[in-house]
Amino acid sequence: MDADIADQMIETLARFVDQDVLPQVREFELDDLYPDAMVDQMRDFGLFGATIPETFGGLGLDVSTYARVIEELYRGWMSLSGVINSHLIAAQLINGFGTEEQKARWLPAMAAGSLRGCFSLSEPDSGSDAAALRCKARRDGDEWIINGTKMWVTNGERAGIIALLARTSDEPGAAGISCFLVEKTPGPRGDGGLTISKHIDKLGYRGLETVEMSYVDHRIPNSALLGGDAGLGQGFRWALTALELGRINVAARGVGVAQAAFDAALSYAQQREAFGKPIAQHQAIGFKLAEMATKLHAARLMVRDAASRVDAGQRADMEAGMAKLFASETAAELALEAMRIHGGNGFTTEYSVERLYRDAPLMIIGEGTSEIQKLVISRAILARAAAKQ
Length: 389
Ligand SMILES: Cc1cc2nc3c(=O)[nH]c(=O)nc-3n(C[C@H](O)[C@H](O)[C@H](O)COP(=O)(O)OP(=O)(O)OC[C@H]3O[C@@H](n4cnc5c(N)ncnc54)[C@H](O)[C@@H]3O)c2cc1C
Prior knowledge:
Butyryl-CoA Dehydrogenase, subunit A, domain 3; Butyryl-Coa Dehydrogenase, subunit A, domain 1; three-stranded mixed sheet; binds flavin-adenine dinucleotide; 11 helices; alpha+beta; Butyryl-CoA Dehydrogenase, subunit A, domain 2; five-stranded antiparallel sheet; 52% helix; single chain; globular
């Protein structure tokens, strides 16, 4: 994307965050209210089509610009980026691997934000070990019959289409898994044999819904199989590809939260006085700010490097994993440091740092925990070393 247009877009988002998000976030977050008006504005900005190609009505942002968008949204409220993350993972799957008919049918409405998507891989008994999933899809003539329970479906209630990973053969592991595009009526109930069986009450990442979904003999048409018959057994591999975008999203969220924590800490440290001077002038606090700023800068550079590699069509599994690991751990660390700098005030709901402290841990869990990122990184190091020999 043209650098000037990208800069203008980020400036517009920064104004939105400052004027329409930050003044209201506390009320929405504490009461766990869905931010309809903020989401409407995001739709008007075209963000539901952020990474969907222009041919389908999207903005067609490159990953580098997308990462900056996420960073900016997260400076305001982490939940806002969650609204588009799994929607765009679903769109990425359709755009990357769907049939021409599936792309034409779903992507324009998803880009316009009139149809919302979600991504459903995790189950009660499989998260990190995602290929151990048990949800089953059995073919019956022109239909598939789905049975199983899916956990942690973010945006599951408001979504009209679910990118669902289910087992289509008895082959163990990834080989037996396919991806389906399951249509549903947006709302709290579900459709046919599909029900929203639980709303999960969360420590942070509040305001948007994360639900459990149950499928009991739920029938969907053959046309719902992503990629048509060629998609049989490909779903898991395709989902991992789409999750690379998700990983960069989470890493960029980490930078956004870390920036918000740093901004709050700096401002407070300049105003709050102790022992006759602003606490920022006590070396212990000044050094904290220095370390926070350094880690924030490093996290941002890592995210931008991983994003630019993806844009250049280079392999970026290791770099995206490193960026996700470092940025999410930095966000959690800076949120706690910002709370320390706020003293007792940091422990109250009057200041934003308690929210950042509750939001930050999700990033060390979602899209692969820190331990799983280390597995991804160490495997990539060894594979690249072997390739050189
Ligand atoms: C708020 C929220 C929203 C989410 N949204 C979605 C969504 O929209 N769609 C979706 O599909 N999923 C979603 N998830 C699920 C998320 O991706 C999983 O929670 C995550 O992958 C971890 O899986 P788990 O919770 O089952 O933990 P587990 O896999 O049970 O892991 C527990 C612990 O064991 C460690 N561990 C596991 N395996 C290893 C290993 N081999 N080596 C070392 N350590 C290991 C983990 O790092 C972790 O510390 C969401 C989760 C949350 C909390």
